[in-house]
Fold this protein.
Amino acid sequence: MTHIPIESMNLMMLNVGCATHHADWNWQKVSSPFIRVFYVIEGEAMLHLPQGNVKLTPQHMYIIPAYTVHSYECHGMFKLYYMHIYEGFKNEANLQDTYELPTEVLVGSGMEPLFEYVVNLHPDAKLPEPDPKSYDTSTKTFGYVERYQRMALWEKMELRGTMLIIMSHFIRHAKPHVWTSDERMKHVLQYIHEHIADDIEVETLARIACVTKTYFIRLFKQEFGLSPVQYINKKRVERSQLLLFTTDLSVREVAYQLGISDHSYFCRLFRKMVGITPKEYRCQQRT
């Protein structure tokens, strides 16, 4: 079974805090370039994800991967700790690629002191407002990243340990994808991530896997739930979201950096996967 080397997990904590809501946690179609982790203290709420709805209950932790479109629903009192973790973009497989992570894990009351300690140590990392539109912008995110980078070494080490402890609870209950025991598929995934901005041919991937093209497509879809082309497009769109979020490159230049020369095709692909155009996405993130 493969694993993600701990040293390659470049995690940065953007925000952490404790929030109490009274039927006012009802944000719709939220999507961000960072991971969200919740630990529920009291009350109940609903999390609406593409794969289904999840009821949020006390003494459970929940994880929402970056770029996942989701919504919240709350009809009463709801108290939780939250942490936002930023990874940026890496030319290698991430946790979501390698493992089938559970959205929910039961952790009991033991996690509360850990969150409480971090919240008390970093009061400036609290969100300014509960509405994602108030903090989920490129300007705010860059400010949070810079704040993390200015921290003392001991603070970064302590936060890194905290984030690894939190992520370990999800990994403990995660299922490695079958491909992780297949060296051929490891090489395929590595090739895709390293050449995401190049013209990747399915025939090339099949040769790397040492199987026929037809069998490779069937095997890849079986392991990832997507065809090779769909997976490549997904990763390209994720990379484009980061570029639109973090740079002033034009939409055409972003497409070019991803190896897509047809600007119109890129816009159609982006809209199909994100629900809005690249230009609308950038405006939304910078409002």
Summary: The radius of gyration is 20 Å. The beta strands are 12-22, 35-43, 45-49, 52-56, 60-64, 71-73, 77-86, 99-100, 104-106, 175-176. The first helix runs from residue 95 to 98.
